[in-house]
């Protein structure tokens, strides 16, 4: 085995052991990639590989520019038409299809409008993986105001090729009626980030 350093002929690369007793092992996965280090004074506090480890993998955040009507007793895919960022171009048509395998933190925030005072509502924000419910947040309320929101997160494994993530919303109220999901970057949003490679 050998270590080969390739690059400019000027400057130097120093590998320095920690000033503590014992043995320190640095294990690199069997993949090629760019090693990124953090630490501002020459000390390396964390090393990551650009081939899919947290810190360099896909991340996105999307919001709504207009309200979306949700019919009573109907499971509805939530549409997100405005991207704040999409680092690897993996978000399209309100669907996140990451091209790096690993574990993703998925975040979903919603705000329901057009609630009628005194009406009983059952809400569910649901994260779907491959067209099946994966995680959901439920609550039941008797409305005393026009607006009600919720938020939750979950960890989802994606294979980096075919797995995809979507956000859904379900509402059931009595007596029956529609509600609207609010628009605006801060109130209804969908996001995800790679936190660990496969």
Q: What is the number of beta strands?
A: 15
Q: What is the string of SSEs from the N terminus onward?
A: EEEEEEEEEEEEEEE
The gross shape turns out to be elongated
Output mean pLDDT: 83
The amount of helix comes to under 10%
Distance between the termini: 26 Å
What is the CATH architecture annotation?
Sandwich
**What is the CATH class designation?**
Mainly Beta
Largest sheet: 7 strands, antiparallel
Radius of gyration: 23 Å
The count of helical stretches stands at 0
Tell me the structural class: mainly beta
Helix-strand layout with pairing:
Layout: E1 35-38, E2 46-49, E3 59-63, E4 68-70, E5 74-77, E6 82-86, E7 91-92, E8 95-96, E9 102-113, E10 120-129, E11 132-142, E12 148-158, E13 165-174, E14 179-181, E15 189-197
Antiparallel strand pairs: 1-2, 3-6, 3-15, 4-14, 5-13, 7-8, 9-12, 9-14, 9-15, 10-11, 10-13
């Amino acid at each position: 085995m050998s270590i080969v350093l390739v690059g400019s002929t000027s400057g130097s690369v120093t590998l320095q052991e920690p000033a503590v007793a014992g043995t320190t092992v640095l294990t690199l996965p069997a993949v090629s990639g760019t090693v990124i280090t953090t630490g501002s004074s020459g000390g390396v506090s964390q090393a990551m590989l650009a081939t899919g480890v947290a810190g360099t993998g896909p991340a996105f955040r999307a919001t709504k520019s207009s309200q979306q009507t949700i019919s009573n007793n109907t499971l509805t895919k939530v549409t997100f038409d405005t991207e704040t960022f999409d680092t690897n171009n993996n978000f399209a048509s309100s669907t996140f299809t990451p091209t790096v395998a690993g574990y993703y933190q998925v975040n979903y925030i919603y705000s329901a409008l057009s609630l009628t005072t005194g009406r009983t509502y059952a809400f569910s924000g649901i994260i779907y993986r491959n067209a099946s419910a994966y995680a959901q947040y439920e609550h039941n309320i008797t409305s005393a105001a026009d607006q009600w929101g919720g938020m939750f997160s979950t960890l989802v494994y994606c294979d980096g090729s075919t797995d995809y993530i979507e956000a859904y919303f379900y509402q059931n109220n009595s007596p029956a009626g529609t509600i609207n999901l609010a628009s605006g970057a801060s109130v209804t949003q969908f996001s995800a980030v790679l936190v660990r490679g496969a």
